[in-house]
Structures are given as C-alpha cells and as structure tokens.
Design brief:
Elements: H1 6-25, H2 30-38, H3 41-47, H4 57-68, H5 80-97, H6 101-107, H7 110-120, H8 125-135, H9 140-159
Helix pairs in contact: 1-4, 1-5, 5-6, 5-7
Length: about 160
C-alpha cells in the first residue's frame, strides 16, 4: 500500500476532471465512458505514472475515442460532482492500493459509486474505501499479497544488478 502524496493527489484531480469533461464531450452514458476509460491503455499508463502530467484532459478523451471508437450508447449522464468524485476515487484506490484501474473497476462499478456518493463523498477517501472493502468482504491481505510480490520483484531486480 502506498501513502497518498502530492503526485497522487494531482493524478486524482486530473482523472476527476477527465470524467467531468466526458459528460460534455461524449454522447454516451457515463457508465459506458467510465468502463471504457478504466479498461483503456491510457488508464494503464496512468496506473504506471507514465505520460503524466504531459497529457491534457482533452488528450485523454481523444485517446479513449481512438481506442474504442465513437458511441452514442446509453443516456444516463451523471452530474459533474458525481463524475469528479468517481474519477477521483477510482484513481485514489488504484494509487494507494497499487492495483490497476481494471481491478478497481471489477471491485466497484460506476453505478455503485453513484449510489454511494451522498453517503461517502464528504468522508476521507481512505475511510470510504475501507468501508466499501469491508462491505464487499475484501480483506487487506489481498493487498498485502500484491505488495509482497512487488517487494520481492524489486529485491530480485536489485540482486541481479
């Protein structure tokens, strides 16, 4: 697990802004955009802190459209506040737990975030994530296993030098 720092907060704010802009730029529903984003190559690059902050929010939206194509599917568009919070929280979870955007998306879908917004949006993100994990019976041990593998890999890499 990683402690939230300034780089992480910038990534969270950036992703929140991308989600907000998606409502103005695309005619598809918010859940469709979010799924596309979370499974995109761009999200994977952000997961690894590549190309940030060189990318603008508009560039991210361009890349999502290039990767998945244009769609008008769906009509559900979340409010800007909800979109920002969902984008922020997805990135916060990915950054602090050091897991991919895809994995976080598989844990919690946009509709669930939307339903939790009024209850959790004023909460500390760590506390909100802990409550969601508890409600879904996700143990911290899963995160420790991921962390242990990462530590082992870094140790093995250092030994081989």
């Amino acid at each position: 697990m990683k402690t939230m720092d300034e780089q992480g907060r910038r990534l969270c704010r950036f992703q929140g802004k991308v989600f907000v802009l998606s409502a103005h730029r695309f005619n598809c529903s918010s859940p469709i955009f979010i799924r596309r984003f979370m499974f995109s190559q761009t999200a994977a690059r952000i997961d690894q802190y590549q190309e940030f902050p060189e990318m603008s929010e508009e560039t991210v939206l361009d890349r999502i459209e290039e990767e998945f194509g244009h769609t008008d599917y769906g009509q559900i568009v979340y409010s800007e506040e909800v979109l920002y919070w969902i984008g922020y929280m997805y990135r916060y979870w990915s950054y602090t737990k050091e897991i991919s955007s895809k994995k976080v998306y598989r844990i919690i879908k946009p509709e669930e975030w939307k339903n939790l917004y009024y209850v959790y949006h004023t909460m500390d993100p760590d506390a909100a994530i802990a409550r969601i994990m508890e409600a879904k019976n996700i143990s911290e041990e899963e995160d420790y296993t991921t962390l242990g593998v990462q530590i082992l890999r870094s140790l093995l890499a250092a030994e081989s030098k």
